[in-house]
## 1
Amino acid sequence: MMRKNDVFRLGLSLCILIASYSCQDDEYEDNSFNKYYNANLNMVGQAFIQNVESTPAWETQWATVEKAGNPHPNEVFCVYSPSHGTFTVLPVLEGEEITHVVFYPMTENSEPLIIDGDTEDYPEYVRGFFQAQCYATWEEHQLKVDRKLKTFVYNDSIVPAMRMANPSPYFLPADIWVSFTYYYNATWTNLYVCRAEIGKHVENGLIIAKRSFPNVLFDFPGTTHNVDLIVQNVATYEIASETAIKFLDIAMNHVRTLNYVQRVWAVYCWTPPSGGASGGYYGGFSNGGSGKDSGKGDDLASEYEERFCPVCHKRMSECTCAISFRIEVSPNNEVELAKHYDISVYIGGEMRSEVANVFIEMTKTKYPNHWVRIGGGQPLHYTYKQTMMAFNPGEWVVQVGFQLKSDPTIGYSTSTTKFKVLYPHVDDFKNDPIVVSFFEDLWTKCVSFAESHQSTHEVREFGAFVFLNPDGSYSCTEVEPGPIVALDHAGAHGTISASTGDYEYPSYWNDPFRQKPLIVGTMHTHYPATWAAEGIHFPVGPSKKDIEFAQKIPGLVYDYTNKIKAGDAADNPENPLKIWDYGVKRRVLED
Amino acid sequence: MKTLLFIAMILMAIPGMAQQKKTVNVDSLSEKKRTEYLTKVAEKVVKHFGPGYYRKIRPLVIDKITITPQDTISPPYMKREFMGRTYYRVRFPYDENYEFFPLGYAAEVIIWADTGIAYSVVFGNEFGVVDINNPKIYNDSRYIMQYEWQPPETRELYKLIHR
Ligand SMILES: [Zn+2]
Ligand SMILES: [Zn+2]
C-alpha cells in the first residue's frame, strides 16, 4: 500500500518540474543553450553555465562555441599563471576527442577565444597552457586531447642557458601554471579571491624554498614576467639547474596545499645542463617533484633498479606482487627542522605500468588516520618523488594513494614508511649570535637589578624561550623573570620557570606544511654574587631545578665558569661568563 | 698585603666567639697528628654550619693544595686573594646507596696549612660559606645550611649537566 502511494506522489512532482521547465523555455525562446539544463551537469558545469549566462551577448558567443563542437561544461577548470593571467578553460569535443579549447580570460569585457590544432595565430598564453600540459587534468578524466594541440610550445620564452657575470650566478627562469577547481559558486569575485590566494602562495612558497637554498635569488612573479631564479655560488651549471629544480619543487609544493588547487607546474625555461632534450628546450616540470628527474631518466632507472619490494622482497622490476609501493624518505629517516627531504615512491608489480597517478599522504603517528595529502602526480619510470621542507617536528608516517589508468578510484598502498622530524641540536643554537646577544641583554638586566637591590642582597633570574623560525633563523622571547630572592643565607638561590604551552604558537600540529615558529630550547641567567651577604658561596652552572626541567627540552644558562662568592666582581675576567648547555640535546618529540 | 690584612682580621677575631683561638702550623705536625688535627677541625666546622651533612665514614679524604696560577682546583676568588698559599682540603665521604650529593662528598672543609684555621665549607649540595672563622659569620644562624635528602637516583639527573 505504502509503495503505491509513493509512486503516485513522485509522478505528481515530475509534472510540476516539467511545467516549470517549459516556463523557462518560453523566456529564452528556442536557444540551443537550454539543452544544458537537461544535460547531466555536475556542480562545476552548473556553476559555469550560470556564469556564461550572466555575460552580455553570451548567446552569440555560445553559438560560436557550439559551432566548433560539443562543449563539456563539467570539465571546465581554471588556470592561473603569474605571467600569463587567469583563465577558465572549456573543452570542446568532436566525438571522443578534445579538438577545441575555449579560453575565457578573467578580465573585464574580454571575449572568449576558441583554439583548435590548426589555429595559427594564437597568443602566448595558449602556447604556455599546452606547453605546461595543463590539459593533463582532462586526460586523467579519460578524455583524449588532439595531438596537434598537445604539441603547442612557447614561441619566445625559450631561454638558453645563460651564465651571468662571474663568479657563477646562473639565470634560470621558470613559468608557473596552477590549475584549480572551478568554484561551485564561481562568481567572478570568488575567482579573484582564489587567484589572489594562489599568487600569495606562490610568493610564500618561494620564500620557504629560499630557506633551503639561500644562494638562490628570485623575483616575485609579477603580472608581466615569470619566476626568474638566479643561482649563485655553485660550481657547475648542472648543480645550478638541480638547485633551481629543487627550489621550485619546494615552492610549488606550498602552492599545492590549497585545497582547490588541482595541479601545479613550473616549466623550466632553460636548456638542459648536458645531453638532455634536444631542440634547446628543456621542457621540464616541477610537478610535485617527479619532474625534476625528467632530464635524467637513466639515473632514475638505475635508482629504481636498486630498490626491493617491501612485500615479496624481490627487485622492484621483478616484483611478483600485483602492485606494490616502496616508500623511502631521504637523506634518511631522521630529518632536521628547516631542512628539505625527499619522499620517493617506487612502484613495482605486474600492474605497475597501469598506475596513472600517485598521491603522497602523511600523518603523525600520534594522529593515526588523519591523512593529509601533500602532493601527487604522474610517476616517471615507476618512480615518483616529492621534496618537502621539514618544519613540523614529530614522528610521521607516509602512505601512497594511486589511481590506475583504467579506474579513477583511489586505492592505497598497504606498506607505509615512518620517519622523524627532529628539533635542532642544542649546539645548533647555543652560540647563535641572536641567542648570545639576547643573553647579554638579559644579563645586563640581571646585574642592574642586583646592583639596585644590593642593600637587601636581592637578585632574580631572567629568561626566555629560544624559537626556530620558518626562515631558519633563531629568535628569543623573554618570559616573566623569576621570583626575587635575597642572597643573605646559606643555600639561597634563585629560580625561574615558564611553561612552553603559554608561548607555543597554536596551530594544527598534524599539518605537514605547518610554518609556525617552534620552541627549541630555554635560556635563563643566573646572577652575580657581588652583592650577596658576606661569606656566601655558591656553585655555577645548571641547578638541580634547571636539569629537572630540561629532561624534555635543552636548556641554556648564562653563568660564570667557576664557583663564586660574595664580593666577586660582576664582570670578572678571571672568571668569565659563559653559556652552559644542559638537559636533553634536542627537544623531545611529543607531537 | 692582602695576606697581612687577613691575618690582622683573624687576630682581631680571636677575642670574640670564633671557633679557633690559636693558630697551628699544620705542616709542622707529624702525619698522624696532622690527620687528627684536620679531622677534628673539619668535624667541628661541619657540625656547626651543616649538622645535617655530618657523616661518620672515616677516614676523611685529605688533599694538600698550593694555590698556583696553573691550579685548577682552587676557585678564582681564592687565586685572587691567596696566590702561593697552601691549604688542606678535607672531604667527607658518604653512602652512595643511601643518598646523592652533586659535590661528590657530604662536605668539604678548607683549612690553611700555615695557620690551621678553617677558611671555607662547601656542602654536598655545592652551596657553602667562606671566611667562616669570621665571628660575624660564625655566630650568625643564617649561615647554617639546611639538609635536603636526595635519593641515589638523582645521580642520573645530574648526568644532564654537560661539564
Ligand atoms: Zn613485490
Ligand atoms: Zn638556573
Note: Helices of chain B lie at 2-13, 31-49, 76-82, 135-138, 154-158.
## 2
Amino acid sequence: MSTMSWHCDPHLLARYSAGALDAVLAASVEAHLVHCTQCQTAMAAHTDPDESDRIWAGVREAIARPVLPWPVRLLRRCGLNDEDAVLLSVSRSLRGPWTLATVVVLVCAVWASFPDDPRGKAAYLLVAPLVPVLGVVAAFVSVDQTAELAVTTPYSKARLTLLRTLAVIVTTVPLVVAMGALIPGIGWMAVTWLGPAFGLTLTALVGLTWLSAEVIGPAVLAGWAAVVAGAYGHDTVATTVAAPAQLGYLVLTVVTAAVLSLRIRSTNFPGALP
Amino acid sequence: MGMRSHPDAEDAALVRAMAAGDEAALRVLFTRHLPWLRSRLARRCSDPEIVADVLQDTFVAAWKGARRWRGDGEVAAWLWGIAVRRLVSRLRGRSAPVTLPTAEVEAADERTLSSAEELVLLGVEHGDLAAALRRLSPQLRAVIEATVLDGLTTREAAQLLGLAQGTVKGRVRKAKAQLRQDLISYQSGWS
Ligand SMILES: [Zn+2]
C-alpha cells in the first residue's frame, strides 16, 4: 500500500530478519509487512538468493509433477518418500482391487444386514478379510510387468511389493470398515474381520516368499473359505471372529510378521536376487 | 498474460493469472513474498530445512489453490495462512517445539519502537498494548502470538508450540486476564 506513511527502515528490517528484535516489536514488523508491498520488497535484501533459487526450483518441479492417486498421497502424508511414491503411482494395479472391493463388499454387507439370513453374515466374513489378501496377490502378480520394472532397480521388487501391500491396505481396509459401519445389522463384524484380514495378508506375503502368486492366492482363499464354511456348517459363523479366534489371528499375525521380516532380510524374497 | 513484463502487477491480478495457469505470475508472487515469509517462518521454527520445505509447499499450494482464492482479503495474508498451517502440520507430533520466539533479544531502540508500535501493532494506536504484551512472560506471549497474531486455532497453536491443547487454553486465559488487568483503564476489547 503506497498510501502508508510509515515504513520499516532498513535497519529495523535487518534486525528483524536476524531475529534480533524482541517479540513484541517483531510482531509489529510482521503486522506491517503483511500489508505493505514496499516493505515486503525491501525484505529481499535479507534473503539468500541461492536459497531462494533452490526453493523456486523445488516449486517448479512440484507443480510440473503429475497428481498422484489418492492412496499414494495418503501414504506420502504418512511418511512415504518421493521416490517410492512415484514408483507406486506408475503402477496400474491400485484401482483394480479397490473397485473390486467396493462392489463385492457392498453386496455382501447388504446381504449380511438381513437379520434372518445367516448366509449374509457368512458371506461378509468370507469376503471382507480376503479383500486385502487378494489385493496384495494381485499387486504381486502385476509387479512382473516389465513396464513397471523398467523404472526400478533389480532389488526393489521386494520393496515394491511391500509398498503395494501398504497401498492395498490403505485403500481397502477403511472402505470395508466404513461399509460395515454404515450398513445396519453388521455390528461388531464391521471391525472384527480385521483380525483374520491381517493374519491372512501376512500369511499370503510369507507364502509368496516361497511360492508363486498363482499358488498362494487360491491357497489362502481356499483355507479361509474352509474355516468359514466349517463354522457355517456348525451354525457358529460368529465364532470365526470371536475372542478366542482373534487371539489365534493375533498369534498368526505376529508369527508371520516375524517370519516375513527374516525372509526379507535374507535373499529369498522374490526379486531380491538380480 | 505476460506477467514477465508486469513485475509491478497487483497481488490479486497475479493470483488470477495463476488460476489461468500463468507460471510467470507465480514467479513474480514468489519473488515478492518469499523473503518476508521466510523470515516470519524462521521466527517460529529454527530448522532452516523445515522452513525451506514449508516455503516450497506454500507456493505449490498457492499455485494449486489459486482457482479457489475468493479474492476477498489480502493475498499476503492468504499466503501466510497457508504457510503457518503447513508449518504446523510439518511440526505435528514433535514433543518439543523447535523454537520459541526469543524474548528480549535486544533492548529495542526507543525511537524505532514507538514508530513501529504506533502504527502497526494490532491496529491499536497507543503503545500501551505493546507495553502490556511486553510484560507478559515469554510463554504467555508465545500463545498470544500464535492464536491472536498468527490466527491459529487452539489445536494448531498447540502443535506449533509443542504443547498440550489444555495448556494453550490455560495460557491464553491467563494472558488475557493479565492483559485485561494491564489495560483496564483503556477499556480495550479483550474478552
Ligand atoms: Zn512499509
Note: Confidence is low (pLDDT under 50) at residues 1-5, 96-126, 187-191 of chain B.
